Amino acid sequence: MNTCYYTRTKDQDHSLGIYEQSEITNDPVPEEEETSAENLSDEVLTFQTNCPTCNAPCQTNMKVTNIPFFKEVTIMATNCDNCGHRTNEVKPGGGVAEKGTRISLRITDVSDFSRDVLKSDDCSFSIPELEFEVGSGILCGRFTTLEGLLVSIKELIITNDPLISGDSAKNDIKLKVEEFSKKLDDVLACKIPVHIVLDDPSGNSYIQNYYAPEPDPEMNIDHYERSFEQNEELGLNDMKVEGYEEF
Q1: What are the CB-based long-range contacts (under 8 Å, 24+) for 151-155?
Q2: Contact of 45 with 62, CB cutoff 8 Å
Q3: Helix, strand and coil in the chain, % to nearest 5
Q4: Digit-coded pLDDT (tens) for 199-215
Q5: Within a 10 A sphere around the Cβ of 96, how many other Cβ atoms?
Q6: CB 58 within 8 A of CB 79
Q7: Beta strand spans in the chain (E)
Q8: CA-based torsion, 124, 149, 142, 82: positive or negative
Q9: How confident is the model at residue 243 (pLDDT cuts 50, 70, 90)?
Q10: How high is the pLDDT of residue 240?
Q11: Is the pLDDT reported for residue 225 higher than 90?
Q12: Which DSSP symbol is given to 98?
């Protein structure tokens, strides 16, 4: 083995963060540069992850954005070049709200399906007129339109489930699923008057208000006290927020 020691060049020193005293200046950082460095909403951050489907290396893009009249959210998108799997997740900022939120929107026009929707991981989705409800654990958090949310739910529980629509599904189940699928298509075509309800114990879900900042006449937003079970699911019952320095 032969070990050779050499003197680094200035460029090599600079790449390692090493500078001579004469090269260091105390000039203040311009305000514009300082702001852009701290404001994450101005840039898209990229980091390496593994695909949840095939485990191949892929990239995840993350961006902090502000939803008008609501709050800041973090959008994360992963696209796998190996298997084509794509995910789009949203994490609301600010933590769990003081109260849960139940949003009910009456669909009166096809344009209502163009409303922006933020569904958190803890939010359930229901259409009372169809006696249809999707629990909070079925669909991950996402920021999309109301139409996009309905299409994603339809694909998840109908199109992509072999026990419901595949060859292994029973004929009577297939007929019921086909009938329900047609009803969802009628809802998207605004042929059936329905209400869309988002129930989020964490208070981090949102439907766009076309009349903002004024109240939307077709939308009802209720803030309610969470039950013990709901706080337990959110991990709040065992959380100590006062006197924690005693531990």
Answers
A1: 151/188, 153/125, 154/181, 154/184
A2: yes
A3: 30, 25, 45
A4: 999 998 999 999 988 99
A5: 20
A6: yes
A7: 45-50, 57-66, 72-79, 86-92, 100-106, 116-119, 124-127, 132-134, 142-145, 195-200, 206-207, 219-224
A8: positive
A9: low
A10: 63
A11: yes
A12: S
Tell me which DSSP letter residue 37 carries: H
Q: Whose CA is closest to 123, among 136, 138, 137?
A: 136
First-to-final CA distance of the chain = 54
The pLDDT assigned to 33 comes to 46
Residue 31, H or E segment: helix 31-38
CB 130 within 8 A of CB 145: no
Beta-strand relationship, 142-145 and 206-207:
unpaired
pTM over 0.90: no
Which strands form 72-79's sheet, in the order they lie side by side? 45-50, 57-66, 72-79, 86-92
Instruction: Indicate if the pLDDT at residue 135 is higher than 80.
Output: yes
Mean pLDDT of 184-208: 92
Structural contact between residues 189 and 196, judged by C-beta atoms closer than 8 angstroms: no
Cβ(90)–Cβ(141) under 8 Å?
Answer: yes
